[in-house]
């Protein structure tokens, strides 16, 4: 009996340790917003959206005069929307509207982040776009970078997106844990972020983007996520690190995204967008 007691206590302590590490490793929200799109000369709407569980989240809507389509931008696990200006500009130059959201607990958004919560935040952002008369609901595109890839994939299972773009993301939390903390038994993780299982049911056009030089999310996990996905799907390999995309890779990314969206008749043709 004493041996059983020690085993139970050991497992309980191990589980508690795993949950502590987990809570400190997944979300890195920052409240202070360093800059807004105005710093790049971009007009934007500072909007506040109520989620189904009554949490108010903050988002920026940056509109394009070309109205080719609207991108719901789900960012990674660290910082807030103020740290995504470079990509906001890139998507704006493609002629896309961008709704970039801060998950609960990030920036000006209420609450505390959780896996279930960030999924609700993305759904609320989509539903907000449906209330806008100036947004073409048939051309709403999900985009997720890193952790945001899991959010975008989940959104793709719950709402009618025109296309999905997954940038530098992973299969699930267990696979990432094995990479970062190989000593942690993955079955003890409470967070799943299981994009590999969900993406099989997403039948809209999907573009997966990853770099072999990604030092945070291994290329193999991005490749495995792509392999798990249902058709239609495409894979784009870029250069650069996880948070450092060279200018030439950014230009390639812009060209390939536009080509992908055109190929699947997601965006309208335009002669005004600068990244053709």
In short:
With 276 residues, this protein is of the alpha/beta class.
Explain how this protein is built:
With 276 residues, the chain is an alpha/beta fold. It is built from eight helices and ten strands. The chain has helices at 2-25, 85-93, 115-130, 147-158, 173-180, 195-198, 219-228, 247-263; strands spanning 28-29, 45-50, 56-62, 70-74, 78-79, 97-101, 140-145, 163-167, 206-211, 233-238. The protein has an eight-stranded mixed β-sheet, with helices on both faces. Strands 1-5 form a two-stranded parallel ribbon. Helix 3 (115-130) packs across helix 4 (147-158). It is globular, with a radius of gyration of 19 Å. The termini are far apart. Mean pLDDT is 89; it is low at 5-18.
Give a quick set of tags describing it.
18% strand; alpha/beta
End-to-end C-alpha gap = 71 Å
Which bin fits the share of residues in helices? Answer: 25-40%
- Overall structural class, as computed from helix and strand content, comes to alpha/beta
Q: How many beta strands in the DSSP annotation?
A: 10
Order of helices and strands: HEEEEEHEHEHEHHEHEH
Largest sheet: 8 strands, mixed
Total of helices: 8
Q: Note the overall shape.
A: globular
Strand order of the largest sheet: 2-3-6-4-7-8-9-10
Strand content: 15-25%
Uncertain residue segments: 5-18
What is the radius of gyration computed over CA atoms, rounded to a whole number of angstroms?
Answer: 19 Å
Mean pLDDT level: 89
């Amino acid at each position: 009996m004493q041996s059983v007691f020690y085993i139970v206590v050991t497992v309980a302590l191990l589980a508690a340790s795993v949950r502590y590490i987990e809570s400190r490793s997944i979300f890195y929200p920052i409240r202070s917003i360093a800059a807004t799109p105005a710093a790049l000369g971009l007009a934007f709407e500072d909007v506040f959206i109520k989620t189904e569980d009554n949490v108010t989240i903050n988002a920026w809507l940056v509109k394009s005069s070309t109205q080719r389509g609207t991108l719901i931008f789900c960012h990674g696990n660290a910082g807030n929307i103020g740290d995504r200006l470079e990509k906001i500009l890139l998507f704006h130059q493609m002629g896309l509207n961008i709704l970039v959201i801060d998950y609960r607990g990030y920036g000006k958004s209420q609450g505390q982040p959780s896996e279930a919560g960030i999924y609700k935040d993305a759904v609320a952002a989509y539903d907000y776009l449906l209330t806008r008369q100036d947004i073409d609901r048939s051309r709403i595109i999900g985009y997720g970078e890193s952790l945001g890839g899991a959010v975008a994939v989940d959104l793709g299972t719950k709402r009618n997106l025109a296309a999905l773009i997954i940038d530098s993301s992973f299969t699930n939390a267990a696979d990432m844990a094995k990479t970062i903390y190989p000593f942690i038994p993955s079955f003890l993780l409470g967070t799943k972020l299981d994009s590999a299982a969900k993406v099989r049911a997403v039948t809209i056009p999907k573009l997966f983007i990853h770099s072999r030089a990604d030092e945070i999310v291994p290329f193999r996990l991005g490749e495995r996520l792509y392999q798990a996905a249902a058709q239609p799907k495409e894979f784009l390999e870029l250069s650069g690190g996880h948070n450092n995309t060279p200018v030439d890779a950014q230009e390639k990314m812009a060209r390939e995204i536009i080509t992908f969206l055109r190929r699947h008749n997601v965006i309208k043709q335009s002669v005004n967008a600068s990244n053709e």
